[in-house]
Amino acid sequence: MEAEKKAISLLSKLRNELQTDKPIIPLVEKFADTDIWNQYLEHQQSLVSESDGKPRWFYSPWLFVECYMYRRIHEAVIQSPPIDDFDVFKESKEQNFFESQESIIALGTHLQELLKTIEDLDENNLKNEFFKLLQISLWGNKCDLSLSSGNTSSQKTNIINSLEQFKPFILVNDMEHLWSLLSNRKKTRGKGTVSRVDIVLDNSGFELVTDFILADFLLSSKLATEVHFYGKTIPWFVSDTTIHDFNWLIEQVKHSNHKHLSKCGVDWENYIKMGRWVYHDHIFWTLPHEFCAMSQVAPDLYAELQKAHLILFKGDLNYRKLTGDRKWEFTIPFRQALNGFHPAPLCSIRTLKAEIQVGLQPGQGEQLTASDPSWLTTGKYGVFQFDGPL
Ligand SMILES: O=P(O)(O)OC[C@H]1O[C@](O)(CO)[C@@H](O)[C@@H]1O
Ligand SMILES: [Mn+2]
C-alpha cells in the first residue's frame, strides 16, 4: 500500500506538471535508457531560445512530449518497489482482447480453414488471401487504446466481411509490391535459404491477433521462412505490445475452448519453440528518436533489421517516427520523408490517427480535407506505404 501511495503521488505530480505547462525535467531513476533520455532532453533544451531556456510541455514537439509522458509514467512505477514491474495498462489491454472474442474466433476459424487447402491454392488465390490478411492487419490497427483515451476499443464484428466496404478508405495501396517481393523470392530462393519478414508490432489485443494470423499465413504459404517481431520493453502508448502481452496472448489463444483458435495457439507456440517466430526487445522503440536516427543511436538494432527481406511497421506512432513527425506536404515522396532510413525494403501498415501523411497524389489531401475534415485523425483511413530496394 505504501508503494501504491508513492506511485500515485508521483503520477499526480506528473499530471500537475503537464497541466500547468511546467518545464520538462530530467529523469532521475537509473534505468537502461535514462542517460540516453537525459541527453535527448539536453538536446531539446539546446533548441529552445526563450529566456529561461527550458523546454515546456505545451511548446515542445508533440512526439517528444508524448513519449516523455509515457516514460515518466514508467518512472513513477519503477520508483515504487515492490510494484516496480506493474503494467498500468495491463487491465485495459486484456479487456480489449476479451471483448474482441467473437471477431478473434472468426479470424482463427478463417485461418484454420485456409490452412487445410493452402498447398493446393493457385497463385491468384494465394495472392487474394495474402491481401485479405494484410487488410485485416491494417484495420486491426484501428483498435488502439491511446486514441480512445484508454476506453474500450475492441473489435466486435467479423472484420472479414467488411473488407470490400473498407477498401475505398485505403489512401495508398502498395500491397502489390509486397506480393511481388515475397512471391518472387519464394520462386527464386534455393532450398534451405531464408526469407525473413520482420514485423515492428504496435498494439496488443485484437491488433496483435491480426498480426499473428498474418505471420502464420506467411510461414504456411512459404512466402516467408522466418518472422521476427519487435515489441516494447516498457508499457507504452497504452496498448502497445510488451513481451508479457505477447506471451499472454498466445497462452490465452492456446487455452481457448474453441478448437480452431486453440489450434492457432498451439501452432504459434511451436513456431516460437522452433525459432521460426522470434521476439526481439530493444530500448530504442521507447525512446523519442525518429527512425532516421536509429543507425546512430541503436546501430545493433539497425543491423538486425538489415537482415530482413521485408519489414512491416504497424501503426500510427511508427509512421510518425518513420517520417520524423514533420509537417510534410501531402505529396512529398515517402522515401524523402524517411530521410535515409532504409535498413531493408519496408512497408508502413497504418490507420491515420495523427496529422501527418506523405506520398499522396496531387490534390488528394485537399479533396479529403474538403469532404471529411477530420480524415487525418479518426483512424477511418489507412495506408500500405512501401519503400522498395534502393
Ligand atoms: O497505436 P498507434 O496506431 O501507434 O496509435 C497511437 C497514436 O495515438 C495517439 O497516441 C493519439 O492519437 C497518437 O499520438 C499516436 O500516434
Ligand atoms: Mn499503439
Automatic annotation (TrEMBL):
Keywords: Hydrolase, Manganese, Metal-binding, Methyltransferase, Nickel, S-adenosyl-L-methionine, Transferase
GO CC term, one of those recorded: nucleus
Chain ranges passing through the membrane: none
Domain of life: Eukaryota
EC number: 2.1.1.-, 3.1.3.-
Cofactor(s) listed in the protein's UniProt record: Mn(2+); Ni(2+)
Reaction catalysed by this enzyme: L-glutamyl-[protein] + S-adenosyl-L-methionine = [protein]-L-glutamate 5-O-methyl ester + S-adenosyl-L-homocysteine; beta-D-fructose 1-phosphate + H2O = D-fructose + phosphate; beta-D-fructose 6-phosphate = dihydroxyacetone + D-glyceraldehyde 3-phosphate
Similarity field: Belongs to the damage-control phosphatase family. Sugar phosphate phosphatase III subfamily.
Function: Metal-dependent phosphatase that shows phosphatase activity against several substrates, including fructose-1-phosphate and fructose-6-phosphate. Its preference for fructose-1-phosphate, a strong glycating agent that causes DNA damage rather than a canonical yeast metabolite, suggests a damage-control function in hexose phosphate metabolism. Has also been shown to have O-methyltransferase activity that methylates glutamate residues of target proteins to form gamma-glutamyl methyl ester residues. Possibly methylates PCNA, suggesting it is involved in the DNA damage response.
Notes concerning its domains: Subfamily III proteins have a conserved RTxK motif about 40-50 residues from the C-terminus; the threonine may be replaced by serine or cysteine.
Protein name listed in UniProt: Sugar phosphate phosphatase
Source organism per UniProt: Pteropus vampyrus
